[in-house]
Amino acid sequence: MLAPFDWLRLARSSSELLATLYYLDEHPDAIGEKELAPPRSALQRPCSRCGLYPHEEGGRFCSTCKAILEQGQRLSPQIQHITLVWGYVTQLPRQLRGGAPFPEGMTLHTYVHDAQHFLTVLPRQQLKPWLQELALYNSLTLQGLLQVFPGSSPRSTPMNELLIRVIHHEARFPPDRLRVRFLAAPHYIYHLHELDREGVLTFEISDFISTLEMASVFRTLLLPDEQTTLRKLLKLRDDAEAQFYWGRFLGQIKPEVRDMLNAWQIRRWSPAQVDLLYRLSDYARYY
Known about the structure:
Blueprint: H1 4-8, H2 14-26, H3 63-75, E1 82-89, E2 109-112, E3 117-123, H4 127-138, E4 144-150, H5 159-168, E5 178-182, H6 192-197, E6 202-204, H7 205-221, H8 224-234, H9 239-250, H10 255-264, H11 271-281
Parallel strand pairs: 4-5
Antiparallel strand pairs: 1-3, 1-4, 2-3, 5-6
């Protein structure tokens, strides 16, 4: 029999994962009650997706997998701008233990695995408010690791592989404080040591919220074409050329933007830090 988490591990895309969460909510008693398929043979075969239950007559999938796949197709447009958080904590946040829930619309779904693990799916621009809400009501009691990662698809890194790898790395940190590990893209899961060395992977929660705040200010003050120009300037390797175009760029932007960039000393940032700022801009709201 498949447990709820086993069904999550079958999801190869973000839309399948979200559809599975919805299905588990809507049919809590349906999982595990069906009869198993007979042993595989030349004339009989189980569901092509779960490999455990009999497929529907004339089809390839069992009724559960078919319902999940159909709902996943309907959810595909919705999952373009979601992010996921896998939490490994000393105790569940108050909002998941019967306390006041997160504000309506902040999360799309939350799955509680056990007393120390949960999975939350939320619109990516709700990440900062969600973390602030979490820290506000649990700052003294919540310790552990929150791993933030984007949705994925079989064409890049399958969702089930990404989720399992995220879980595999959760035990690397002692539960002495609340940390956030941010994966800006699915393939980052294969380069964790390199990202850790560059200081753009793991943060204390207050530092990560501050970085998201910087991204919000950056996105609000700089126009899209100014953001593009700035990124090109920061990639220049010739010092004389970079200095010339930097002075020209500063003369074209607003004084408050110029003061902000100079205060940040953004020209001294590493390429990884610049990339992090631009990637976090997708998670930031305009002021």
